[in-house]
Amino acid sequence: MILSFDTAWAISRQWQVFSELQPASRLLCQKTAEQLAALVSSPGRYFILDLLSVSAAFDGHLSRLERYHLPQAFGKYTEIYMLRIEALKHALLNGRLHKAKQLCNLDFEPG
User: Fold this and answer.
1) How far apart are CA 89 and CA 85, in angstroms?
2) What is the mean pLDDT of the chain?
3) Ranked by mean pLDDT, which of 5-9, 23-27, 80-84 comes out on top?
4) pLDDT tens across 92-105, in order?
5) What was the pLDDT predicted at 89?
6) Using CB atoms within 10 A as the burial measure, which of 44, 81, 104, 110 is most buried?
7) C-alpha–C-alpha distance, residues 105 and 5, integer Å
């Protein structure tokens, strides 16, 4: 599924606000994402988990709290999403922006 321009713009704006939050505030947003993911249908849940994985990797570091809470949100897809986070972190930290862009795919599929 391809996102409309308006949807993509709204997500990017929320992303900008999210990236400016302090780590404790980001963790609260991640906990909210966990709760939200539990309430929506499968495609919507995968979209939220995709977005959560991208947001967790974007600063290039996973805190101890993120390492604890992310597997709770990802559930049975933990291994897939954690590998994606590590690959995205590596791409971002090494300036491989095209690779990072590919890993930021929000496709309504797990992982």
Assistant:
1) 6
2) 75
3) 80-84
4) 899 888 898 888 88
5) 92
6) 81
7) 15
Closest by CA position to 68, among listed 103, 30, 36, 39:
30
- The length of the chain in residues reads 111
C-alpha 71/C-alpha 82 separation (Å) is 8
CB 29 within 8 A of CB 18: yes
Token pair 């496709």: residue: 107
For the chain, the structural domain boundaries read: 23-103
Q: How many CB atoms lie within 10 A of CB 97?
A: 10
Residue for token pair 């979209």:
47
Q: Give the pLDDT confidence of 24-53 residue by residue, as tens digits.
A: 455 555 656 666 666 677 777 888 888 888
Scanning the chain, the segments in alpha helix (DSSP H) are 5-19, 23-39, 42-57, 64-74, 78-93, 97-103
Q: Token digits for 80?
A: 């897939």
